[in-house]
C-alpha cells in the first residue's frame, strides 16, 4: 500500500520496556471507532512505514494495536469520500477576507541564545550537539 | 466572608474597596491548594513564590489607585501556555523538563492586568483527549465525584476552578477542550472566535482550530477575563486586528426578540435523558424571557467528526515534528545515530494517544493520500461552514447540549461509538467553522453538572455572554459548589 517504504531505509523496531505503554488498555482506548471500512486495511508493514516517516519508535507490543486503531480511524473517515464536493473550495481560513499578515523585513528579536540553549539536552560552545551525522 | 465563595469579579470589587488585600486572597487560595489539590491532581506546578510576589505587586497597584477589575485576582493557567522561567509541559513527558524562555501573550496580558498566577494546571497530553486521562502526570479527578473524569483537555483548570482552588482559569479549545470540561464540572466556559485571542506562546496542537479561552464561575467573570486576553497580536499571524468590545459592560441585554436556533442533529440518539431535560428546561426559560425558538438542521454537521479526525491529526503531525530531542525536551539515552535519537526520543516522550494522532496525520498527508484525505476534509469543512452561515442568516444564536451525558468514570473509556460520536459532534463544529461558543451550567443529573451550549456567529462573543448572563440571573446552577469543596 505504501510504495515509499521500498525507498526508505527500514529500521529494526525493537521491543522496549516503556512504562507509559502499560497505562492503557489500548484496545479500549482505540475501540471507539466503528470497524474498519472495506476500503482501508493497513498492514504491519504500513504502520512500520508510517512510524518511520513520523520518526516514532513503536514497540512490538504496540504495533498490532496501531495497525488495528489506524485502520479503524481511516475506515471511519472514509465516509468523507461520499460527500459531494464538486466545485467546493477547500477552506483556507474560517473568517472571510482574512489575508496573510505581512510586516517590514526588520530585525525585531534580540539574541536569546543562552536562554534558549538552557533547555537543550546537549550544547557546547553555543552549538547544539547531536550524534555524529557524517562518517 | 468566605473568600473562595466569591467570583473573580466579586474578589476584584472587594480588593478595590479594601475589604481584603490580594496577599490575603492569594494566601487563602494557596492554602486550599495545599490541602485539597492532591485529591484532584489538578496541578502540574504550583507557584507560591510567584503568586505572593504577584499579589504584593497588585496590592501596591491598588494602593496607588491603579489597575482594573481583575487586578489582584488569582488565576491558574493551563500548562499549554508558556510561562517564563516555569515548567511548561503540555502534559507530556517530552516537555517534562522544559522551562519556557518567554511568556505566552495570554499570560503576559493577564499579568499586565494585575492577575496573580497560582500555578499551571494538568491537561491531556498536548490537549489530545477529552477526559484528562492522557496526561503524563496522571488523570485529574472531578471535584463533583472523585471517581469521574473532569473532562478534557483543559481538565486541570476546570477541576481547580470547580473546586474553588482558584477563582478562574485559562484553557484552550481545539475540538471542545474548554466547553466539555466546563459542562462536566459546572463552569462557564468560553471558546472565542478563531483569531480573537493570540496563540503566541500557546503550544500548538492543530493551528487552524486552536483557540485560547476562559474557564470561569460566571458569564461576568468570563467577560472580564476575555476582555483582558483578547486583541490583536503581531506575533500571531492569524490574530485578527479588530477592536475588542467591553464584554463586561454589555452583559445586560434583553432576551426579548433573540432568535434561538435549536439544532435538530444535537437531539438525536445517545443524548442522556437527564441532560436533555435540563437543556430543554433552559430553552423554555429563554422562551419565557421573550426569545423565539426555531428548530433547524445543519445537514453537513454529521461529517464534522470525520473531518476533524483528518484535519486535527494532520496539523498535529506537522506541529509536533519540532520535538526532535535536539533543541529542547526529552532526549533518549545513548542514541546510536541521528535517526535512532529522533525515533527513541519521540517514542519515549510521546504517549499512546499522541503517537496515534501523529501517525494518523502522517498517513493522511503522505504522498498520494493528501487529496483523498486532507484536501477532501478541507472541502467538507467549507460545506459545514456554509451550513452555519445559512443558520446565522435566520437566527442570532444556536443552542443545545454541550455533552450528551454527565461526567463518565475514570478508566471507563466510553466505548459506545454513538455516544462518543455525539460527544464530538456537539463541540467540533464551532472549531471547524471558527465560531465562538459558550457552555453554561444548566442543571445537575444525579449530582453531576451538565451544560447548555450557545454558539454564535464570528465575533458575537458579547451576544453569547449576554445570553449566558441572562440565564445566570434567572438561575443559580453556576453558584453550586461540589459538596466536598464548599
Summarize the structure.
Chain A is mainly alpha-helical. Chain A has five helices and two strands.
What do you see in this structure?
The complex is a heterodimer of chains A (135) and B (486). Chain A is an all-alpha fold and 135 residues long. Chain A has a domain at 4-81. Chain A contains 5 helices and 2 strands. Chain A has helices at residues 4-7, 26-30, 44-53, 62-77, 113-117; strands spanning 123-124, 127-128. Chain A has a two-stranded antiparallel sheet. In chain B, strands 4-6-5-10-11-9-7-8 form an 8-stranded mixed sheet, sandwiched between helices. The radius of gyration of chain B is 21 Å and the shape is globular. Chain B contains 14 helices and 11 strands. Chain B is α/β, with parallel strands linked by helices. Helices cover 38% and strands 12% of the residues of chain B. The chains are: A mainly alpha (135), B alpha/beta (486). Chains A and B meet through α2, α3 and α4 of A and α9, α10, α11, α12 and α13 of B.
Tell me the overall shape of chain B: globular
Strand portion of chain A: under 5%
Radius of gyration of chain B: 21 Å
Largest sheet of chain B: 8 strands, mixed
Extract low-pLDDT stretches of chain B. Answer: none
Rounded mean pLDDT score of chain B = 96
| Through-space gap between termini of chain B | 13 Å
- Counting DSSP E segments of at least 2 residues, the number of strands of chain B comes to 11
CATH architecture classification name of the domain at 3-252 in chain B: Alpha-Beta Complex
Please give the number of β-strands of chain A: 2
**Total DSSP helices of chain B:** 14
